[in-house]
Amino acid sequence: MPAPRALPYKLIATDLDGTLLRHDETISERTRNALAAATAAGAAHIVVTGRSVPWTRHILDSLDYHGLAVCGQGAQVYHAGEHRLLTSVTLDRQLAGLALSKIEAETGPLLLAASRDGLEGEVLVAPGYRIQEGPLPNVMIDDPGELWAAPLNKVYLQHPTLGDDALAGVAREIAGDLVGVTVSGEGIVELLPLGLTKATGLSLAARRLGITAKETLAFGDMPNDISMFAWSAYGVAMANAHDELKAVADEITASHEEDGIAHVLERLYPCAAPAGAEGTTV
């Protein structure tokens, strides 16, 4: 009997929005099947998302996902099967407030929101902050001071006229020694604990599974995935990805609407290819 074929990668790390999920927050049957086949062959799958647990849990439950998930840009390692936080890192509110004041001294007043820590942490939205349409819960507040009343895992910034990349660039230049700054989606610039990235949480989760960086394949679409690509052995950017991520990717696959993850998994894991196919190339 021939020896079992070695897995090309023991861990598959996928971002959610713009990567694993389509615009309607669903996963195609083809991508589901490819992931299921790869995990049945012995690979582990970890969701790695900028969303905090309260904004991620309903998606994982709908997918019948029971493994580990890295949420909140790496701040939270969450056990989906047990609905339990394993690790949680919070933002130093004093440092964040100082960073914000320094940034606003350069840009003028900013529009703010913040994500509170914990399994039930609310996303608080101050006046003027533009929220994206959809089912994600948030709490509108009248007094921006309420943002700082309880532990946070991140603060969201918007500017009336500056674009996301420009705002993030100014924030890094002015306050990059106090907080981390990342762009995780359209209209989403975030202040994070200094040094915290998706790679931080992914490395913690992988360690729990006994898997190393050199055994990891990662998929993403935004600049907040750059650290995950740097940590992993192989990084795949979606066709719809931000140019900054494409520039550091090992490969660019089809978009999240066109089964980009499945294209790669079907090639790397023969068991994931549809019946009668040899694996699909992009």
Description:
This protein is α/β, with parallel strands linked by helices and 282 residues long. The chain is 28% helix and 23% strand. It is built from 8 helices and 14 strands. The longest helix has 15 residues, at 93-107. Mean pLDDT is 92; it is low at 278-282.
Number of helices: 8
C-alpha end-to-end distance: 33 Å
Q: Which percent bin holds the helix content?
A: 25-40%
Tell me the Rg in angstroms.
19 Å
* Range of strand content: 15-25%
Number of strands: 14
Shape: globular
SSE pattern: EHEHEEEHEEEEHEEHEHEHEH
Largest sheet: 8 strands, mixed
What is the strand arrangement across the widest sheet?
Answer: 5-4-3-2-1-12-13-14
Secondary structure category: alpha/beta
Weakly predicted, low-confidence segments: 278-282
Mean pLDDT: 92
List keywords for this structure.
282 residues; alpha/beta; 8 helices
How is this fold's topology laid out?
Elements: E1 11-14, H1 29-40, E2 44-48, H2 53-62, E3 68-71, E4 76-79, E5 84-88, H3 93-107, E6 111-116, E7 123-125, E8 139-140, E9 152-158, H4 164-175, E10 179-185, E11 188-193, H5 198-209, E12 216-220, H6 226-231, E13 234-237, H7 243-246, E14 251-252, H8 260-268
Parallel strand pairs: 1-2, 1-12, 2-3, 7-8, 12-13, 13-14
Antiparallel strand pairs: 3-4, 4-5, 6-7, 6-9, 9-11, 10-11
Helix pairs in contact: 1-8, 3-4
